[in-house]
């Protein structure tokens, strides 16, 4: 379940200029978006499933290049979660999950590119020959590469 931050309303008589920084952090099974202000942490969103990430993408809570990075990690979350289910149709279910992630914001070129990169990495891992676990490792590695390359922009 995605934990959304509570909204805080602060009223002041003077305009306040805030410096904001946003961090996307990946752990083994969670994508965390932390929004920082001059006063410290403003909000933290933890996403532990592909559906959580899709929900956050659709809510327009992510800025610019955070969307394709989140989409790549959503693919990694989907690939990992599907390991718990029957291996019979693993690859077709993963492809369906990737398509759902891509459709989170139709027409978002960077998101489409990120999902395609993840799928291409999965193809190179040769999942059916090496097994789903190898596919998950490869997808996570590609999501990390996408994060690094887009963060450098």
Protein model, in words:
There is one protein chain. By secondary structure, this protein is an alpha+beta fold. The protein has six helices and three strands, in the order E-E-E-H-H-H-H-H-H. It has helices at residues 50-58, 66-82, 90-102, 109-125, 127-130, 132-151, and strands at residues 21-26, 31-37, 40-47. A three-stranded antiparallel beta sheet has the order 1-2-3. A hairpin with a 4-residue loop joins strand 1 (21-26) and strand 2. The longest helix has 20 residues, at 132-151. It starts with 20 loop residues before the first strand and ends with a helix. Residues 1-17 have low confidence and may be disordered.
Topology:
Layout: E1 21-26, E2 31-37, E3 40-47, H1 50-58, H2 66-82, H3 90-102, H4 109-125, H5 127-130, H6 132-151
Antiparallel strand pairs: 1-2, 2-3
Kindly state the number of beta strands.
3
Q: How can the largest sheet be summarized?
A: 3 strands, antiparallel
Radius of gyration: 17 Å
Beta percentage is 5-15%
Helix share of residues? Answer: 40-55%
Span between N and C termini? 31 Å
Element-by-element helix/strand order: EEEHHHHHH
Features of this protein?
alpha+beta; single chain; 3 strands; elongated; 14% strand; 6 helices; 3-stranded antiparallel beta sheet; 153 residues; disordered N terminus
Entry summary:
The chain is an alpha+beta fold and 153 residues long. The protein has 6 helices and 3 strands; from the N terminus they run E-E-E-H-H-H-H-H-H.
């Amino acid at each position: 379940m995605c934990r959304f931050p509570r909204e805080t309303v602060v009223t002041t008589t003077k305009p306040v200029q805030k410096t904001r920084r946003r961090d996307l952090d990946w752990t083994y099974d969670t994508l965390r978006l932390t929004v920082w202000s001059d006063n410290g942490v403003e909000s933290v969103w933890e996403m532990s499933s592909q559906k959580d990430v899709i929900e956050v993408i659709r809510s327009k809570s992510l800025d610019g290049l955070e969307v394709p990075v989140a989409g790549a990690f959503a693919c990694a979350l989907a690939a990992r979660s599907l390991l718990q289910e029957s291996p019979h149709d693993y690859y077709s279910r993963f492809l369906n999950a990737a398509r759902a992630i891509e459709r989170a914001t139709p027409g978002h070129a960077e998101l489409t590119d990120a999902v395609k990169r993840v799928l291409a990495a999965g193809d190179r891992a040769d999942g059916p020959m090496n097994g789903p676990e190898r596919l998950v490792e490869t997808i996570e590695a590609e999501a990390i590469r996408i994060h690094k390359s887009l963060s450098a922009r």
